[in-house]
Amino acid sequence: MTSVDTTHATEEPGPGGYAAARLRLLTEKEQSGPLRRAALARLTDDWLSGLFAAAAPPRGTALVAVGGYGRGELSPRSDLDLLLLHDGSADPADVAALADRIWYPVWDLGLALDHSVRTPAEARKTAGEDLKVQLGLLDARPLAGDHALAAALRTAVLADWRNQATERLPELDALCRERAERAGELQYLLEPDLKEARGGLRDATALRAVAASWVADAPREGLDGARRRLLDARDALHLTTGRATDRLALQEQDAVAERLGLLDADTLLREVYEAARVVSYASDVTWREVGRVLRARSARPRLRGLLGRGGPKPPVERTPLAEGVVEMDGEAVLALTAKPDRDPVLPLRAAAAAAQSGLPISLHAVRRLAAAGAPLPVPWPAEAREELVTLLGAGEATVPVWEALEAEGLITRLLPDWERVRCRPQRNPVHTWTVDRHLVETAVRASSLTRRVGRPDLLLVAALLHDIGKGWPGDHSVAGETIARDLAARIGFDRADVAVLATVVRHHLLLVETATRRDLDDPATVRSVADAVGTVGTLELLHALTEADALATGPAAWSSWRASLVADLVKRVGAVLAGEPVAEPEPAAPSAEQERLAIEALRTGEPVLTLRTEPGEDSGEPEPLGVELLIAVPDQPGVLPAAAGVLALHRLTVRAADLRALDLPHELGGTGTAVLLLNWRVAAEYGSLPQAARLRADLVRALDGTLDIPARLAEREAAYPRRRGLQAPPPRVTVAPAASRHATVIEVRAQDAPGLLHRIGRALEGAAVRVRSAHVSTLGANAVDTLYVTRPDGSPLADEEAVDVAQALEGALR
User: Fold this and answer.
1) What is the DSSP code (8-state) at residue 730?
2) Residue that wins the pLDDT comparison between 764 and 12
3) DSSP-derived secondary structure letter, 280
4) Whose C-alpha in 227, 262, 418, 758 is 20 to 30 A from the C-alpha of 115?
5) What percent helix, strand, coil does the chain show, rounded to 5?
């Protein structure tokens, strides 16, 4: 290990010597982590002590480091938290001059400085009024001057903290909760704030403060290591960016991972998440204990009055919850008669009892189960399987109990494949949670849907396992099917149930993808889903799992519009599975509104349109399913790209599009010229919907060539500088084989952007194919557009033609 020569910095109190030594220290790759932070603190101590001594300080003054610097931990861009302490005997002008001789050299170097000048009485008074000041003073450390003065202040502040713990600890708890609400949970964020988010460095500091109060102490196992990993990540972030930032932005993660010697950004995030999870769990346990102790303290005087000072202690209430499990003081604990070493089902029984009662499971109980628990036989006995299902069906109360088991390694002992998804990040911004928490959250959501299925146990277990394949390479649904089959057999399901669970995991995306990306009026669509699902019972499970999965993913993944499409598909597939024949679709007769618009379009020779909002089926104030946009225009080239471009200019998102040609009979004004009917469902990106007259005017201009849509879209894109971040993968266009007998199905996967459908329409017009319908699905930054295309005569494309069109479209989108 290379040491840093601080002699020059010590001999020369000016900024030059310190700056050079600091730079050498920060650029040394051999020294990092706690050693570098401590060395930087010592180097800074020596420099500031030299500045203090060179300023000829008056008697009764001391320079004190507080906060993180007081703990001897300095990250490359950390603030210097300094207190100039004086006993009040010196001339105020001399104290002010001393402060200037210390603060200005720090500012000259461009270092961030948090400074104050106070007497001990002023410092204690300020600490009493400002919790953050008091927390900083708990770590006060004298640097120079009157060390006895500084030591006396720290002793007094610690005494104040302990004496006022009943009032100050709830205040600190509220501060931590407010910060968590504002900054989110570090263990789930794609761009986490290492300091402010829940489970970050602020929470680790709060745990130190709780320990200093002597009211409660945090679980020590792994806490120091977790805090060190977070500090190391922040150091690397400071050195990578050259800024005092605590937010681990996407564009910095690969460089930070490389600096830490990690494989990639995902490995970095997983380490950060694991550290945050340790801190969060320690915080949960500690604050629960603080609440218990403070409640006991407040009750003690009343009990003394009732029982007399010399009276007996009140008995501890222990309420039975399950065999070997009781409730005591608001927690689920092991009964005195429990025998974890002889009862292999006890961990699951205790967890299920705690969750069903809405209680946390005590730290002592979980640790005892982890240390002495007997292994479950494989396959599990029926009681163990039933307790797992009971735990998963407890709703929101499942989460903290599951986290307690996971913190002590019990989950991976029960389900070995869990380790691969534990703390695994999900790069798609649609996802709110890591993979493992998403699986638990899906089970929580599924618990409210169990009345809709005949086998709620299979629904809950499928919810827990549906994304288990994300820990393996390749298609996670395919990998997950194999893992689910093995785990279901391990849990003790019979062969038939194992097959159902494997099928549900394999096809857990089938319903939503088909409903939003395929033509439900095409018999081939419905038959393909029916063939994959096999039985009505499996369809029932898939329907409930689809909703639970989407709700657990995030707000962008589910809506009443998606729900209505999935329900329509399930109804059609259920009819097929019940033995009803699938009739070939007859061309739907035009509605009165469509005929009216078509007649008007023929009469004027120009497009006409209407906008109509359609609310959902629920009563009250339902979420709109979208806005129906109906356009009629005399058949001509370029209608699809022109209409899509106009919608993009008006910031309207296309959710679905249906295009058909209508030949009006002579009695309705037909002239032999077909009218194109475009029936689209759209939604405003933000703000209110545009007026129909404005849309029509722009569509007229787009069709006659006086509105240059590509140029307008390019101007708008140029006006908004692209944010620096991850490079989007290139678009991919594929042909879905045998997806329809009436059209060729082309699927486009690309980065979502304004005008994407316009560009797709232009490319298909150039390839001389006709778009029969389009089904648009957008999840986060990713768009999946499915297009049913034909030749101009309405027949499907030949295989080679379809491949050529797909390749041309992919080239145009690149």
Assistant:
1) P
2) 764
3) H
4) 227
5) 55, 15, 30
